[in-house]
Amino acid sequence: MKQQSSSGDRQTILVVGGAGYIGSHMVQDLLHAGYKVVILDNLCRGHRELVPGGTFIEGDLGDAALLDQIFSRYSITAVMHFAALSLVAESVEKPLVYYRNNVSRTIELLDAMIRHRINYFIFSSTAAVYGEPVKVPISEDHPHAPANPYGATKLAVERLLADCAQSSRLKYIALRYFNAAGADASGKLGERHEPETHLIPLVLQVATGEREKIRVFGTDYPTPDGTCIRDYVHVSDLTQAHFLALKSLLKGGRSATYNLGNSKGYSVRDVIGIARRVTGHAIPEIVEGKRAGDPAVLIADSEKIRRELGWKPSYEDLETIIETAWKWHKQEAGR
After folding, report:
1. 21, 98, 130, 150: the active-site residue
2. Is 120 a known active-site residue?
3. pTM for the whole thing?
4. How far apart, in Å, are the Cα atoms of 315 and each of 234, 264, 326?
């Protein structure tokens, strides 16, 4: 028997990958908004202790029998997908692992949704679908030329979603993140990756004493200070975009794809300098050679989601974003 919502109750959302960085923030915000939440996570990269509530189920999104149980038991209104593997270098070394998890298992999830007539899907995609930019800022109609298997798997799922929307009642919104950053303002949730590959947490781990130096890969890019420029978007602004996407679909809005970024660029040295101010730590650096496939500049054109869904980031200043991350990382270093 499905658990039926009583009159006035909010919808139940299935959050796949809800024990990860962005997924756990999404679970918290859904619960605060009054939604019921079911979390499915196999904990291969997530952390059970970071799940802030809801009904937690340890399992894999590719387990068809488990998905049938979940969709039969709970009155799921929509699914939010945060369960992709996302390390670029690892995807180059292990492409089959990435295609199996990011594409094949998502096919099982979509198949189960269609069987159970669950029609709303919100997908965490990535700016990696664009590859080396031919123009900046990058809009949604920029050519797709992913430079690694990670980006290729995300693009494959986007194409799969478009095909499923043509052949079924499925409606979806794909949100292409640029550089997710920051932490919940309360300090209860934040970014924990093992291994860590994102610049801001790596810089802050120097300030906490977990690392000796920050490595700067290349200082001769065609940018003002010679280091790569990226667009950082706060994790809570990402979850806000998911709320707007959910609201749009439930009101009969069309399937769509949107960029999520602040449309502002900060260099590696900008990030280090701001982190020095925020933490009061010297944060020594060491310069190394360029990494293959690192574009000089990646900045989002996010006008489409601002115009169509009314998205307005609350954390547009990088110093504020880093302050929220620093609050979390100080706690993490002492745990």
Report:
1. 150
2. no
3. 0.94
4. 6, 12, 15
